Amino acid sequence: AQSVTQLDSQVPVFEEAPVELRCNYSSSVSVYLFWYVQYPNQGLQLLLKYLSGSTLVKGINGFEAEFNKSQTSFHLRKPSVHISDTAEYFCAVSTTGNTPLVFGKGTRLSVIA
Amino acid sequence: KAGVTQTPRYLIKTRGQQVTLSCSPISGHRSVSWYQQTPGQGLQFLFEYFSETQRNKGNFPGRFSGRQFSNSRSEMNVSTLELGDSALYLCASSTDRVSGANVLTFGAGSRLTVL
């Protein structure tokens, strides 16, 4: 069965600084990888996804992530964060076949003015 | 295009009662998944329905059940509520897994408080 580890539960960062949110996964088969964002009192919004092809994936709001199969990682990056990026970010993995999406525990990003 | 709609958004119940939550998926989406979100356990998969059939089930007790109707709308029911059932219940819909991937679009959730 697949699993996801988000290495940091909280990440504080100053406004306009770069940020990286780390995600590692475990799976014995090929994977699909996702990052979702959750703002307070809301559901999850898809930021980006890796299904196949280029390992560098660009998403909404200036975020990007790189799939690294040898490191089993899918880290999320943004070169310059804004106050509005303050939210909780979830990494998720699924595999081929009818398997459900499995989420990490989340990383709370706090952007400081 | 309307998103995933969950009702009610907030509800308060007492221990021992039961609750039914509703989810209307995006038009054309035939798969509906349910997740429970709590501060301690994070996002945990409850079940997935496709074409009125349960396709996957998570590791929850039998008090948690669901169903899907012919119009793809889904409901989940929790009977004999316990304090630990207090959570945000998230519904997500998707088209079928054409490429094998289940890309989920989430609703805003139903926040259940059990007193």
Task: Describe what you observe in this structure.
By secondary structure, chain A is an all-beta fold. Chain A has strands at 3-6, 10-14, 19-21, 23-26, 31-38, 44-50, 56-58, 64-68, 73-78, 87-95, 102-103, 107-112. In chain A, strands 2, 5, 6, 10, 11 and 12 form a six-stranded mixed sheet that branches. Chain A has a four-stranded antiparallel sheet with strand order 3-9-8-7, with no helix packed on it. Chain A is globular and about 45 Å long. The termini of chain A are far apart. The model of chain A has no long low-confidence stretch (mean pLDDT 93). Chain B has strands at residues 5-7, 10-13, 19-24, 31-38, 42-50, 53-57, 64-68, 74-78, 87-94, 105-106, 110-114. In chain B, strands 2, 4, 5, 6, 9, 10 and 11 form a seven-stranded mixed sheet that branches. In chain B, a hairpin with a 5-residue loop joins strand 7 (64-68) and strand 8. The chains are: A mainly beta (113), B mainly beta (115). The interface between A and B is medium-sized, with 25 and 25 residues.
Strand tally of chain A, please? 12
Unreliable spans of chain B: none
* Element-by-element helix/strand order of chain B: EEEEEEEEEEE
Whole-angstrom Rg of chain B: 13 Å
Determine Rg of chain A (CA atoms, Å). Answer: 14 Å
* Binned strand content of chain A: over 45%
Note the total helix count of chain B.
Answer: 0
How would a crystallographer describe the biggest sheet of chain A?
6 strands, mixed
Strand content of chain B: over 45%
Helix content of chain A: under 10%
Described by the principal axes of the CA atoms, the overall outline of chain A is: globular
How far apart are the first and last residues' alpha carbons of chain B, in Å? Answer: 37 Å
Derived structural class of chain B? mainly beta
Number of DSSP helices of chain A? Answer: 0
